[in-house]
Design brief:
The chain is an all-alpha fold. It folds into two domains: 1-76, no CATH class; 78-181, Winged helix-like DNA-binding domain superfamily/Winged helix DNA-binding domain (Arc Repressor Mutant, subunit A). It contains nine helices and no strands.
Amino acid sequence: MLEPAAFTSHVEDLFPGQSLDALDRIHAADLWLAQRLLMPAAQANTLPRIGRYAGQAPLDAWLYTSARRLALTSFRRRDVVDLITRELLGKIPGESLGPEQQLARAESRATIKLAIDRAFAAATLAERNVLRLSLIERLGPDELAAIFGVHRATAARQLAQAKQALRERVERELGAKLGVA
């Protein structure tokens, strides 16, 4: 649990040299909650961006803005889908292909990309989060464990399950599209 002295020290770091009236301008309850959520990450020395939350706006507004920015960035870059697509498409042989084989490869790319898009869209929020943190943010099981407040083995298992679920959905999509059971 967050100690009151640690919280007071954090507030003093955020507002150096200011009186206690500075607390009237911040959302102290939200700041307290943010610091409690950060304790596992702080102990693992892997503070996420919420570590910069200073309580100058409601926490839900900060979270909404952060989530929106992250979603827009991810949508613009299409990182997860593109990364997975590149990995899968890299396994399709190809430099010395004839015209028919090149056409088949191009059609396969579109089919695979669509299957991955649909599979990722069908993923749960928890699966998308753990995949994003692992694939885009390049966080390992230790950092995931600190963020989610779970044991390292649990974080590794959740990541493996999310990858397996995504793989199975891609296979189902491709099987349905190609008529393969």
